[in-house]
Specification:
CATH architecture: 3-Layer(aba) Sandwich
Structural class: alpha/beta
Number of strands: 7
CATH superfamily: Flavodoxin domain
Strand content: 15-25%
Order of helices and strands: EHEHHEHEEEHEH
Largest sheet: 5 strands, parallel
CATH class: Alpha Beta
Helix content: 25-40%
Amino acid sequence: MTHILRIDASARRDGSVSRDLTDQILGRLNATHVTTRDLTTSLPLIDEAWVGANFTPDDQRTPEQAEKLALSNQLVAEIQAADTLVIGLPIYNFGVPAALKAWIDLIARAGVTFQYTETGPVGLLDGKRAIVAVASGGTEAGSEMDFATGHLRLILNFIGITDVTFVTADRLMIDAEATLKSAHQQIAALAA
């Protein structure tokens, strides 16, 4: 059974290239179950109360602290249940959208999705695959101006997801036709 977690981060619902590519990737994969998480529905930013709750041992948390972590726990559970993450990543101002950064802050948790060891941090969500649909107007994926793809790869690797594939539709404002043709070819080459 293949369970996919779809993550949408584009502020645009209509006309979003990253959402369209994510749709196409899902069509290519043989999923028996898809959970969709649209990050633009206003994830909270972490704050002092969240940090305090996160670093309080489970058995010592107050009901208020447990409530503060409830959404984070749900987001982590969605990743834990998935075999594959399909993430729509529009590049905004050379980086990840604020909504995706909020998601990252809520799911990157010491002792939950990674742990520190004597030899360094170890991700706890290994054995999963991630396919990231990248869309940008002018930022070339992997270039020195791209602070989005490297950041997301680092975070995914940090929590244990090391099988990461990028489908890129970058520089859309320069040559949309060639860029989209390339992205479609990348999707066609994906293993189901």
